[in-house]
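Model it.
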Amino acid sequence: MSSRELRNRLGFLAMSGGTFMAVLDTQIVAGSLPKIAASIGATIEEASWIQTAYMIAEVIMIPLAGWLSRSLSLRYLYSLAALLFTLTSLLCAMAWSIDSLIVLRICQGICSGILAPLLYQGIYLLLPRQRQAGATLFAVMIISLAPVVGPSLGGWITETWSWRWLFFINLLPGIMVSGAVYGLVRDREPEWGLLKRFDFPGIALVALFLGSLEYVLGEGPDREWFDSRLIVCFAVVSAISALLLVWRELSCSHPVVNLRTFRERNFSVGCLFNFVMGLGLFGSGYLMTLFLGGVKRYDSLEIGRVMAVPGIAMLLSVPIARIVRRHVGGTASLVMGLGMFCYALWLNSSMTAETGFDELFLPQVLRGMGIIFCLSPITEIALGQLPVEAVPNATGLYSLMRSLGGGIGIALINILVEQRVWLHYRRLAESLNPARFSEYMEQLRDSFGGRMADLEQAGQGGVKVLAGLVRRESLVMAYNDVWLLVAMLFGVMLVLVPVVRKAERRQ
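Modeled.
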């Protein structure tokens, strides 16, 4: 092994640590927003912008990372982004008001949006061909594990120390990562001339399209979607910007985002798979959290215990996935992963209000294993056949697909759950015939009568309990419907596997 190859391997490990830190910060704050709001004197609605602003900035920067890395080189851009991420983390920890924290989270999100795509670049630009499959598996584990453990880890840190430590913990790793990447990584020289051909209209359209879309997805549920003029306005801006962006980038000689990469069939199919995996990864985690908090009434530590299972399964399944890929190939690994994920979601579709940790254990394990078995071959499908010069741009688009899949998936889940809850609530209420209703009310009056002097008051208590039970069952049935729909989507994705061409060695 040459000295350059060893340095690049160590540099790739440092990049993996930095990317884990950045992706972790996407979710680690989410569970601690109420405590942050109370600490700095903000409302919950204002505090939600701590997360929304970060997500908007991150999703805008993801597709721009390729152009920036071509201009500055992988080495300089990653070390600079990691250093700035560390600095903004320090400033976030020292924030003195809600406004200052939101502005600093925007700056932090800009840096985070650069780091994740660059890790994928590192696989194909720094490592030899024979090492890329294992490195892809490792990168997938890093990027997928962080959002799974983020909320529970964030809750534990906030409860144990303070919300400011959500940002302080980034300082030492960030400095080490930035220094290691700068000192170890050796890739091509920067192309400073690209900065002179600055595609300002393209960048502006990317920001308008993705920023408006992320705002619609993030704020839509709280503003009743298109009943809000503001949501309608941002949706129109997003749609028009998307159309103009496609026209601009296809007609521009030096596009900031090269959409022509989608002409490569494997890349397009890989991006579609990654979009669906983003929906499955973030959507299933979000749906499970809703069930545990809304139906089971678990606290943050109990939710973290359940949500840690897929994360542990991911870690333990990495060597298994490597063995499977070595013996049966990436396509078979993808089929197995999609099958496991689909089966896990199908198992979840039969949950009841009494479902607990034991019943959730197997689906959670299968979900974690399915992610690892799927995402590594999907990454190779999308990026493994592209010419080296196309990789920087392609990694940004590929990473964007997963983020959009997660955002759109969660928005769709919110819409579907709301609709199905109302449907099931109405049906359950209609199924309560007068005789059964009277009998049940008598039982409830008896149970409340011992604690309430007034029988009418006891009856009112019984009505509230009955309404709560109907509401709870409606929620469970709605969640089960959504689990089943997502399982069906993953079943459909199995049909697309034969469309993939076998990846050939890039020239």
